[in-house]
Amino acid sequence: MSPYPEVVEKIVQDYLQRVVIQLKRFPKSDQAEVLKELGSHIYESYCAGSDSDAVDRILEVLRKLGEPADVVAEKLHESLLNVGKLKKVPLSVLGGIVVGMFGLPLGFAGVAILLGGLGALLGLVAAFFATATLLLVTGVMGMGLGLLRMFNPDLWDHLVAQGFIQFHGRIGQFFDLLSPAAQGGLLVFLFMAVAAAGLGMLWLSKRLLKGLRFLFDLMLDRAKTLFRRRRRNGFVWGSRRFNEVPPEEQPLSESTSYSPIK
Amino acid sequence: MDYLDGEKERRVTQLRKGILELAIMGTLYHEQHYGYSLVRVLMGDGSLSLREGTVYPILTRLDKDGLVRSEWVESDQGPPRKYYSLTAHGRKLFESLMPEFDQLVALVKQSRNGAKSRQNQHLGERILVTKENKA
């Protein structure tokens, strides 16, 4: 049974309805708690009022209480803070299990792919340098042979007779058409080109190394940033847990005095 | 003039907001209160104008921070009342905050007195200069 006259009751309900609108994001139990407390306040204030006219008195009570949005301001602030938080815990747990079952193996596969990629890259670099060196050595040796053909044909013939130098097929036939000096010149020219290719590759390798170093630094920097961020987040969470105030659930003691205001 | 009044109103509201939390803790330090009785105590003889609903957001915040606890108590004269009291943590915090508050008040008073004495000194100099001029 309402303690107010009908008109006053309507005004009070209207006010409380506006409070409910402000609290629509909250569970019904929270809404009921706030409404119960405000209802109690309005009743106390109404009874203490001195205005003889009931409507004027309740309007004065509500004016002094303030706008519903101001009265539940802290609750609204809390609701804004909660926006974006995970609310469906079972779904989150399920998601965690799925990630654990599939994400981790995929993560290991990812690490394996990364390591494989890095290994392949290192292999390519090694092969590049090996090729460059081989070309350079071959070029130098070939030029030496060309010079030998030009300036010491007897030694050349001796090496050919011993089988150290062999030319077969069309290349051999082509060389037989040329004079010893021309053979030597051609060899020097061809192997000079080979040595130049080796030198060119070595020169390019400086840029290649610079590029690889840049990539490596970039990856290292990303990894450092990620690690630092993880560590910082971990520290904050840890300190929060450490400083958290445990809620006190003890009931109010009977010996404590209650407010004298009735 | 209107602008100055508005500015003053805004500053006063800000000042009260900061101090009201401490005042509520201080009131609950001595005895338990429900919302309406707390408002009555805070407003005292009526010299402090306070929007009554202001206390509820503060009580909610204190409750959330574990500084107060609440309990519904049946009333003979109407609906149940929600009584608030300081928790042990709240009491400890209030005791540590009070000296800080006293220091702040002393600082404000000291600066105000300092300004007054400087003003008097300046006024004295002016009077002296005027007298010398007359002479």
Structure description:
The complex is a heterodimer of chains A (262) and B (135). Helix content of chain A is 80%, strand content 0%. By secondary structure, chain A is mainly alpha-helical. Chain A has two domains: 6-82, no CATH class; 121-230, no CATH class. In chain A, helix 1 (6-22) runs antiparallel to helix 2 (28-48) and helix 6 packs across helix 7. Chain A is rod-shaped, with a radius of gyration of 45 Å. Mean pLDDT of chain A is 79; it is low at 235-251. By secondary structure, chain B is of the alpha+beta class. Chain B has a single domain, classed as Arc Repressor Mutant, subunit A, CATH 1.10.10.10. Classes of the chains: A mainly alpha (262), B alpha+beta (135).
How many discrete domains of chain A?
2
What level of helicity do the residues of chain B show?
A: over 70%
Backbone structural class of chain B: alpha+beta
Termini separation of chain B = 41 Å
Overall morphology of chain A = rod-shaped
* Beta-strand content estimate of chain A: under 5%
Strand-and-helix sequence of chain A, N→C?
A: HHHHHHHHH
- DSSP E strands of chain A, number: 0
Could you describe the largest sheet of chain A, including whether it forms a barrel? none
Oligomer: heterodimer
H/E order of the elements of chain B? HEHHEEH
Topology at a glance:
The complex is a heterodimer of chains A (about 260) and B (about 140).
Chain A: H1 6-22, H2 28-48, H3 54-65, H4 68-71, H5 73-82, H6 89-151, H7 153-162, H8 169-177, H9 180-243
Helix pairs in contact in A: 1-2, 1-3, 6-7, 6-9
Chain B: H1 2-30, E1 33-34, H2 35-43, H3 55-64, E2 68-75, E3 78-86, H4 88-134
